[in-house]
Design a protein that fits this description.
The complex is a heterodimer. Chain A is globular. Chain A is about 75% helix and about 0% strand. Chain A contains twelve helices and no strands. Chain A is mainly alpha-helical. Chain A has one domain. Chain B contains nine helices and nine strands. Chain B is of the alpha/beta class. The chains are: A mainly alpha, B alpha/beta. At the A-B interface, helix 1, helix 5 and helix 6 of A face strand 5 and helix 3 of B.
Chain lengths: ~260, ~250
């Protein structure tokens, strides 16, 4: 590894772990992700005998454990925004750029450290939540196994999705350079876009299929719910995620190359 | 050693730095003097590759800043109190800076010692006074033991003790044979600190001379400064007329 890249990575690693926001965001994500998933799974199990057959058929052993994911994804996204926009807001971008004057290198190192960290935490959260949920479901013979068709893909994709949201937040943060603007843009993209898609469904399902939240739902589930026309196919969902990450990182990279 | 060659920065129709050329030599404190808005900070930001010049070039120790592999070993810069993330401790702030340029972590401890911050090393920067922040900025600049140091308005908002501390530090660094460039709009402070002066006004170089020679024939450095800046206001508007292809 070239020494300049090694130095930039080491610096970003220390920066990431030496502010409280990182610890707060990741703890919140772990607690809410695991906690809400567990609560939801327990409530399904408790009411299983009274559930209508249609609901039973639609039950997704992986999906129910992931009901805490919307909160966790927020924490990941906000972390992504803060990692870069926080530098501009506090003025620490000046020492960052004087220590590593190649802006592309700074951007690359920041993105790499964040991607690695959020991927590890995202997968830990996804698999942890899944296994806890299965422990609850096992008592009722509803549990799935990682070897079952689609399960491993769904669980690992739920973890990947969290990292994807963090990277989208990162790109938006680099583009906005202000934490509040970056977080607002992230909320709009993750939550408001869903409503916009719904509103347009009278004309076309395409906007809905292209929303982040629907793509996230589809990749984190086992049954690709073909019955719901607003949901994209599995392939389209992965493509959509890749497209959002590319656009956000590209936009952020473009802005980073410009003078602070 | 700092070399600035025909450096120009335009923001739209406004020219912040106008065809500036100078050399800053080692072994003495060079003051960079001019009124607010004269282009001092823009010039320093271009030296450090924080701002991209419209034309011209700036080199530190013979190379453009962006091509320095370990810039903290070449140049230390103290810019206008900004700099450290409030949520990070002083020690961690210096740690990541050291890591970025492959410097050993003990350097962080050493510069904290030199700037008198050892006792607050573990405290978050958000709780620091302006004087402590300024010291932390200086600690960061000294981290790589660089032969060239740049201070942008280092005494703004400091108490007399802090002002004197920074002044003696800059003089000591120059005496060690380093290149020291310090920008200020305070003539009296420059008279006490600098051996050599670069005076700029409206983005142009007005004088590049030793303090003694600049002051000769005037009652004080201040009188010399005002004589210089008065003449350039005229000079500047002549240039504007010329740029528009008209005569005044």
């Amino acid at each position: 590894m070239p020494p300049a890249l090694r130095g930039a990575l080491a610096a970003e690693w220390i920066k990431l772990w030496s502010v409280r926001s990182t610890w707060l965001a990741l703890s919140f994500a772990l607690l809410s992700g695991v906690g809400l998933g567990l609560i939801d799974t327990v409530s399904v199990v408790r009411s299983w005998d009274t559930l209508p057959p249609a609901d039973r058929a639609a039950f997704d052993a992986a999906g129910s454990a992931f009901s805490g994911l919307p909160l966790a994804q927020l924490a990941f996204g906000v972390l992504g925004v803060l990692v870069v926009a926080g530098e501009y807001a506090t003025g620490s971008i000046i020492p960052t750029l004087t220590a590593v004057p190649r802006r592309g290198l700074v951007y690359l190192a920041k993105a790499a450290v964040l991607a690695g960290t959020t991927l590890v935490f995202g997968e830990t959260l996804a698999f942890g939540t899944f296994w806890l949920g299965q422990a609850v479901l096992a008592g009722h013979d509803l549990d799935a196994d990682l070897g079952d068709p689609g399960i491993l893909r769904a669980v690992s994709s739920a973890g990947l999705y969290l990292s994807v949201i963090a990277m989208i937040g990162f790109g938006l943060g680099a583009l906005a350079r202000q934490p509040a603007v970056g977080v607002a843009a992230l909320f709009a993209l993750v939550f408001l876009a869903y409503g916009v898609g719904r509103a347009l469904e009278g004309w076309s399902y395409l906007p809905s299929r292209l929303t982040l939240s629907n793509a996230g739902d589809v990749v984190g589930q086992v049954h690709a719910t073909a019955a719901k026309p607003r949901l994209p196919s599995l392939r389209l969902a992965y493509l959509t995620l890749a497209m959002y990450v590319t656009l956000a990182l590209g936009g952020g990279g473009w802005r980073t190359a410009r003078d602070a | 050693m700092i070399d600035v060659h025909r450096l120009t920065k335009r923001y739209g129709s406004r020219t912040a730095v106008d065809d500036l050329s100078f050399t800053v030599r080692p072994g003495r404190v060079t003051g960079f003097l001019g009124p607010n808005g004269a282009g001092k900070s823009t010039t320093i930001r271009m030296l450090l590759a924080l701002t991209t010049p419209s034309s011209g070039s700036a080199a530190v120790n013979g190379r453009p800043y962006r091509r320095l592999h370990t810039p903290l070993r070449e140049v230390g810069a103290v810019l206008d109190a900004a700099g450290a993330h409030g949520g990070r401790t002083a020690f961690r702030h210096l740690c990541w800076l050291a890591a970025s340029n492959g410097l050993p972590r003990r350097r962080a401890t050493e510069v904290l010692e030199r700037t008198g911050l050892t006792s607050v090393a573990g405290r978050r920067v958000s709780g620091f006074s302006l004087g402590m922040r300024q010291r932390l900025g200086i600690a960061a600049a000294l981290l790589g033991d660089p032969p060239t140091l740049i201070f942008d308005e280092p005494v703004n908002g400091l108490d007399p003790e802090g002002v004197r501390w920074i002044r003696s530090l800059m003089r000591a660094l120059a005496a060690e044979g380093r290149t020291v460039l310090v920008s200020s709009h305070l003539i009296s402070e420059m008279a006490l600190t600098a051996d050599h002066l670069l005076v700029i006004g409206a983005g142009r170089l007005l004088a590049d001379d030793g303090i003694v020679r600049l002051t000769r024939g005037h009652a004080s450095l201040e009188a010399a400064y005002f004589a210089l800046t008065a003449s350039t206001t005229q000079h500047r508007s002549d240039a504007d007329w010329a740029a528009e292809g008209r005569t005044p």
